[in-house]
From TrEMBL:
This is Uncharacterized protein. Residues 15-41 are annotated as: Disordered. Keywords: Cell membrane, GTP-binding, Lipoprotein, Membrane, Methylation, Nucleotide-binding. Belongs to the small GTPase superfamily. RasD family. SMART domains: RAB (SM00175), RAS (SM00173), RHO (SM00174). Signal peptide: none annotated. It comes from Rotaria magnacalcarata. Its main location: membrane.
């Protein structure tokens, strides 16, 4: 992992003295074991605070159909790595410490399984999530249908929260570099649903272009009141 990652992410700094982002990824078939459920979601920001340690924690849950690039997006964001080989993910957790001028944040990113064999785990992941990235592939119309279902599921699971309809959520149309002839979801069509009907941010990305991936994650962090770059660098 290159030490320049902290520079590229603007104000993001890691907590160790070597000024290097350290990430930890552990595949878990039952990632929920040993984790305490969060019961509150702040109305003004998703990051929760451990009042004993003054340590903020934000868990991003990445949802979407299989083979849309969820793992690739996570690894490009955290490790500047483009993954070419597809491997089925069974709920993989990444974590990174972020030290800002007056805040210490533990950022957790849960890369969920794209298959439907673990519906209970998916609902549990949503229950414990603070912010959400929902991913589809622009060359796969069915994956957009799945994204719509994931959006509905998040609202359903979080329906007991007053802030359910305003919680941090970004919809990603991945693989935007695909040949136009292979595109099955147009930008206008997706914008009509995501921006006009759901009033959410819709960002197209490709794992080949790191900047597009940063835009999506930075936007979600911004919605969670965590600014790791200048506002002008965050997608709006």
């Amino acid at each position: 992992m290159r030490s320049g990652l902290s520079d590229e992410l603007g104000s993001l700094k890691v907590t160790d003295d070597r000024s290097r982002v350290s990430t930890n990824s552990t595949a878990r078939r039952n990632y929920a074991a040993g984790h305490n459920q969060r019961h509150n979601l702040h109305s003004k920001r998703a990051a929760t605070i451990d009042h004993d340690s003054q340590e903020e924690k934000l868990r991003i849950v990445v949802l979407g159909a299989t083979k849309v690039g969820k793992t690739c997006l996570c690894q490009q964001f955290l490790q500047e790595k483009f993954v070419t080989d597809h491997k089925e993910t069974v709920d993989e957790m990444y974590s990174v410490d972020i030290a800002l001028a007056d805040r210490h944040i533990v950022l957790e990113i849960l890369d969920t399984a794209g298959i439907d064999e673990f519906p209970v785990m998916r609902r549990l992941a949503i229950t414990r999530g603070d912010a959400f990235l929902i991913v589809y592939a622009v060359n796969d119309r069915y994956s957009f249908t799945i994204a719509q279902k994931m959006h509905e599921l998040v609202l359903e699971v979080k329906s007991d929260l007053a802030s359910a309809t305003t919680m941090p959520m970004v919809i990603i149309g991945n693989k935007r570099d695909i040949d136009i002839s292979q595109r099955e979801v147009t930008l206008d069509y997706a914008n009509n649903i995501v921006r006009d009907q759901w009033a959410l941010d819709h960002i197209e990305t490709t794992c080949h272009e790191r900047e597009s991936v940063l835009n999506a994650f930075h936007r979600l962090l911004h919605l969670s009141n965590i600014n790791i770059t200048n506002n002008s660098d965050i997608a709006t």
